[in-house]
Amino acid sequence: MVKSTEVSQREALPIIGTRSDRFEAVAGGLVAAIVTIGYVLIARELGTSTMRIEALALWSSLACVWLARTENIWTMPYGILSVILLGWYLLDIDLVGQGWLQYVYYVPIQFAGWWAWARGGPGRTELEVTRMGARGWSLLIPSMLLAWAGFALLFDAIYEDPAYLIWDSSIVASSIAAQSLMTLKKRESWWLWTLPVNVSSIGLFVRTETWAFVFLYCVFLLNSCWGWRQWLRAERSSGRVG
């Protein structure tokens, strides 16, 4: 099995996870802290200062995505903290699309995902990994394109001169789609995280010289490739299509 757990996948999952989930959450937080401290020290040696909010956002985000890979329910609490900090920082550097995305969408969807992963399966059991069918794709692709256009128009109307509007809006639309699929435990979520979110975000943050987030999204990219492989194994073991 991909995930070590004390209950069957067909049973309800405790809202705070199993004992092994909680142990892994603590371990993940410690590993994320070590990586974050290492980044801050290296950045300081290279003459690039790291704001406290950047470091905290980096730490919580690393822990969140690491736990998502193994379907650990504690990805959601880490994720809630992460998106609050990320939104604060991104609005400060005028990436309004990604900034408001954190507060308007990611905060509530993290709470929804917390419940769904624990009680979203048949008979309110733990949700299993599945893949999308043709109907899912036929809804997803046009929805993403409409969201992209809609967010670009919205942010252009609200803000006088938002930075990298079209590029930023494409990442917003892709992120919403990816997180929605992850909340439903669709393995295709990792495809979206990999290319239209992580690879694109790396390019955007290089352009804005936001090096903490370049590093963060490089780690996200590696994790999304690993997460895809693990969720694929989980989906094959269940043999289900959503």
Present the secondary structure layout.
Elements (H helix, E strand, L loop, with lengths): L18 H27 L6 H18 L5 H18 L3 H24 L14 H25 L6 H19 L5 H19 L3 H28 L4
The largest β sheet comes out as: none
Element order: H for helix, E for strand = HHHHHHHH
How many strands? 0
In DSSP terms (H or I, runs of 4 or more residues), the helix count works out at: 8
Unreliable residue stretches: 1-9
Radius of gyration: 18 Å
Mean pLDDT: 88
Helix content: over 70%
- Strand pairing plus helix content: what structural class? mainly alpha
What is the domain tally?
1
Summarize this structure briefly.
This protein has 242 residues and is mostly helical. It has helices at residues 19-45, 52-69, 75-92, 96-119, 134-158, 165-183, 189-207, 211-238.
Q: Which descriptors would you attach to this protein?
A:
single chain; 242 residues; mainly alpha; 8 helices; globular; disordered N terminus
Describe it.
This protein is mainly alpha-helical. The chain has one domain. It contains eight helices and no strands. It is globular. The chain starts with 18 loop residues before the first helix and ends with a helix.
